[in-house]
Amino acid sequence: MPLLTGTLATNELVISEVVDRVAACDARTVALLGLSFKMNTDDLRESPKVELAERLIGKGFDVRIYDPVVHPARLTGANRRYVESKLPHLERLLTHEPGEALREAGIAIVSSSDQAVLEALLMTPPRHLIDLTGRLGSEVESLPGYEGLGW
User: Fold this and answer.
1) What's the pTM?
2) Which domains does the chain carry?
């Protein structure tokens, strides 16, 4: 139980820090690259990125989401119910390509090291980039506006 409590507290601190950093930027459009709690799964239950998206939307940011594995029509059971309660407009927010999410975004919040995401970041680097993974590689990490957080 203490491990779970510590994880939830850490997640809350990271979410709050990201929201504060986004609010401090001049960007109004946010690309959220990666939504599930870990790569290569569509399980969104208790994903801190779902909570992050919800808070940013609540603060008036235009949020665009790319996750190569998440397809709302394929979500089932508790996973589907969770998304419907937290992000009922997920289908409208999702993009089919990472470059589409990055188009006109002033800031990218990245929790996916998917090859398509890395290539899109290098082709269309946002003014600000917050890395939540620590695994984006030296090319992305050397982009202007890069910040690592949460790892």
Assistant:
1) 0.91
2) 2-148 (3.40.50.720)
